[in-house]
Amino acid sequence: MTGRRASARTAGAAASGRTPGRRPGGPDTRGEILRAARESFAGKGFSGTSIRAVAREAGVDAALVHHYFDSKDELFIESMALPIDPRQVAARVLTGPREELGHRIVTTFLGVWESPDGQQRMKAILRSVVSSDEVARLMREGITQMIIAPVAETLGVPDAKLRVSLVATQLIGIAMTRYLIELDPVASTPVAELVDRIAPVTQHYLTN
């Protein structure tokens, strides 16, 4: 009896053009997988995210995730398409008076975090950097090549890379405190006030 019921379900699904189980791939399937992956990486980091969990959230089989993405690494890279091109960041902060460099860096950085889509992606990246050596390596190499090196070259001092790296510690600290830990009053302070308070510190690292 059980076998006849299963056969009937399969036949009914075939007649209606559907397959039993999770939904098959469709025009929006890849996008749904990326959405589910971004949410998982943002909430759990790289190590806490699995292909199966992403598939379950997207409502598809894990095999379908593998159809679109060869590995979790590839899924991470695709889903974390940065909300802003790092090369554009470097160009933006380098355009203008040298004495306002710290202000432009902080304004640009917080501007990325303050957009809803940017914040979700940046949270995922930051959590994954903390939990995965491989993700940390990828981000370190990318940031060094596309942001730290170009900014350091404009300073014209022997310890330029150290100076820019110290700025990075300031920015990562504010991101952790405001957006991940959500520690008040930093988390609730208006962005303009944060920029006014942090910019002089970053400027000091760069030019003093």
Describe the structure.
Residues 1-19 have a biased composition (Low complexity). InterPro entries: Homeodomain-like_sf, HTH-type_TetR-like_transc_reg, HTH_TetR, Tet_transcr_reg_TetR-rel_C_sf, TetR_C_16. Residues 1-30 are annotated as: Disordered. Keywords: DNA-binding. This protein is an all-alpha fold. The chain has two domains: 20-79, Orthogonal Bundle (Arc Repressor Mutant, subunit A); 86-207, Tetracycline Repressor, domain 2. The chain has helices at 2-15, 29-44, 51-58, 62-68, 72-79, 86-94, 101-114, 116-131, 133-155, 160-180, 191-207. Helix 10 runs antiparallel to helix 11. The longest helix is centred in the last third of the chain and has 23 residues, at 133-155. The N and C termini lie far apart (83 Å). Mean pLDDT is 81; it is low at 1-22.
Search tags:
208 residues, 2 domains, 11 helices, 74% helix, elongated, disordered N terminus, DNA-binding, Tet_transcr_reg_TetR-rel_C_sf
Biggest sheet, open or closed, and with what strands and sense? Answer: none
Domains (count) = 2
Named at the architecture level, the CATH assignment of the largest domain is Orthogonal Bundle
The number of strands is 0
Assembly form of the protein: single chain
Fold-level CATH name of the largest domain:
Tetracycline Repressor, domain 2
Strand content: under 5%
pLDDT < 50 stretches? 1-22
* Mean pLDDT level: 81
Terminal CA distance reads 83 Å
Element-by-element helix/strand order: HHHHHHHHHHH
What Rg is obtained from the alpha carbons, in whole angstroms? 22 Å
| Number of distinct helices | 11
In terms of structural class, how would the helical and strand content be classed? mainly alpha
CATH class of the largest domain: Mainly Alpha
- Based on Cα principal axes, name the global outline: elongated
The fourth-level CATH homologous superfamily of the largest domain is Tetracycline Repressor, domain 2
Give the fraction of residues assigned to helices.
over 70%
